[in-house]
Specification:
This protein has 475 residues and is of the alpha/beta class. The chain has two domains: 363 residues, Inosine-uridine Nucleoside N-ribohydrolase, Chain A (Alpha-Beta Complex); 88 residues, Immunoglobulin-like (Sandwich). The strands form three sheets. An eight-stranded mixed sheet has the order 3-2-1-4-5-6-8-7, with helices on both faces. The chain has a four-stranded mixed sheet with strand order 9-15-14-11, with no helix packed on it. α10 packs across α14. The protein is globular.
Length: 475
């Protein structure tokens, strides 16, 4: 297939995928994937299967993420000791199984070939499945040790140096660092830039990074509350709001517990589906506790990943003090915030699992269900709609042109996401279970905001969902 034809095909496929990058971006940019780096303490399944499970899920979503690096590094799995270098074999095995499933997965995007690896290393568009050679070239070791005290001249690694290279690239998208284990590799990269660059250059570097940590695993397993030991504490204390930092203490726990309670669904729909399914291990503790780190940035049109209170597939966060009682970041540790986050984690769990199961069908059979496409008031794309009506007006939102690429029937649900806005009252909606809804703008909502979610579900296997957010700013 010629280059121009391939580009056109991928552009057309965008409309067949219920996915896009951060809703903060314009529709001219939505074809680009979000960039992610994964720091994982992946281990053999008999030691801890959790990271392997999350890696399988990530790779069957590889058409949605620009996977910039997969870095094996220290974390809880090594029980406070150095990360065993041979454990990276588990990561390489997962990539090998991805390679075997690629012919089937590529059918989801009608993709017939790969770009040259130097092109793959540039900006990738949603719908493009990266080659296994590309992923292998982005797989490396990071810091093997844990803790703030290990940061320094002797702590450089291929992973920390590569993070610097990635952040320095001329790319306007944030570089998301998904921390499945300890964040020592990231801290080392920041420390090195701090030593070598001016304060302004350091700030530019920090502003490019967006970090999502699954709890704090830069401490020994047996000393988990010793936050002062951790390089995470150092990053938050040293750099404050210059470093966009999320500390999750809710979504990973919900994913673990709900997954364990529903393990039979994984045994039925995930295990032994394709080659990746054949290596998907039985859970030992929880199930896929690291998965929220990329569900948070998954391009499904639901939320803006830079607005932590908008609520998405990985819950809800606010800027607040952390468990160390000293530093601040976006977190969900307080009872009030955790309660909000847990409500949505439970609500969205069936949708996140259904999406995973449908993709494992593609890995196994080369066919399956695809997500519906939501169109609101004739506006395509998935960027949120922003409206500024007068108070007291009745606004019509029309999703009747939404469609399903597999010709499935669609059902509609319009709902108020109250925690995302500043208006605390009720918002009346008429026909909220049809494709056209009427929204009564409250008389007392001037100068405030409220968010309406259009949730569309198809009638196909697993009943997949897609979303569109409408943000009201009444005047």
């Amino acid at each position: 297939m010629k280059e121009k034809e391939s580009t056109l095909l991928l552009t057309m496929l965008f409309m067949l995928l219920s996915s896009t990058v951060s809703v903060a971006q314009s529709d001219s940019d939505v074809l680009l994937k979000p960039r992610i780096v994964v720091l994982t303490d992946i281990a053999p399944a008999n030691v801890e299967p959790d990271d392997m499970e999350s890696m399988v899920r990530l790779l069957v979503h590889a058409d949605l993420f620009e996977i910039e690096a997969l870095i094996a590094s220290g974390g809880w799995n090594s029980s406070g000791g150095p990360y065993p270098k041979n454990w990276i074999d588990s990561l390489q095995t997962t990539i090998y199984m991805y390679e075997k499933d690629l012919p089937n997965l590529m059918k989801r995007s009608v993709q017939t070939r790969f770009l040259p690896i130097e092109k793959e290393s540039e900006q990738q568009k949603i719908g493009y499945w990266p080659s296994s050679d590309y992923l292998k070239s982005r797989t490396m070791l990071g810091s093997l040790e844990l803790g703030y005290q290990k940061i320094g001249k002797e702590n450089d690694s291929p992973g920390s140096d590569f993070i610097i290279k990635l952040a320095d690239e001329n790319d306007p998208r944030p570089l998301w660092i998904a921390v499945w284990g300890g964040g020592n590799t990231l801290a080392q990269a920041i420390w090195k830039v701090q030593q070598q660059r001016t304060e302004a250059e350091l700030k530019t570097f920090l502003n490019k990074l967006h970090v999502y940590t699954i709890t704090d695993q830069d401490v020994p397993w047996g000393d988990r509350q010793n936050y002062l030991f951790s390089s995470h504490h150092w990053m938050r204390k040293e750099f404050g709001k210059d470093l966009f930092f999320i500390w999750d203490e809710s979504a990973w726990l919900s994913q673990n517990s709900i997954g364990s309670q529903n393990w039979e669904e994984y045994a039925t729909h995930i295990q032994n589906h394709g080659n990746l399914g054949r290596i998907y291990p039985k859970n030992k503790y929880g199930v896929e506790g690291d998965t929220p780190s990329f569900l948070y940035v998954i391009p499904n049109g639901l939320s803006n990943s830079t607005a932590c209170n908008q609520v998405g597939w990985a819950g809800y966060f606010e800027w607040d003090t952390t468990l160390d009682k000293e530093t601040y970041c976006y977190t969900n540790t307080t009872p009030r915030v955790k309660k909000i986050s847990q409500k949505y984690e439970r609500y969205f769990y069936p949708a996140t699992f259904a999406n995973f199961a449908a993709r494992m069908d593609w890995a196994n059979e080369g066919c399956g269900n695809r997500d519906p496409v939501v169109i609101i008031n004739n506006q395509k794309g998935i960027a949120s709609l922003s409206l500024s009506p007068k108070t007291g007006q009745v606004i019509k939102l029309d999703a009747s042109k939404s469609f399903d690429p597999d010709k499935d029937e669609l059902t509609f649900r319009w709902w108020l996401l109250s925690e995302a806005g500043t208006y605390t009252g009720d918002v009346k909606m008429i026909n909220s279970d049809t494709n056209i809804v009427q929204v009564d703008v409250p008389d007392d909502a001037a100068g405030k905001t409220f968010h309406i979610i259009c949730e569309v579900t198809d009638s196909g296997e697993h009943n997949l969902k897609s979303y569109r957010r409408i943000i009201f700013s009444p005047q």
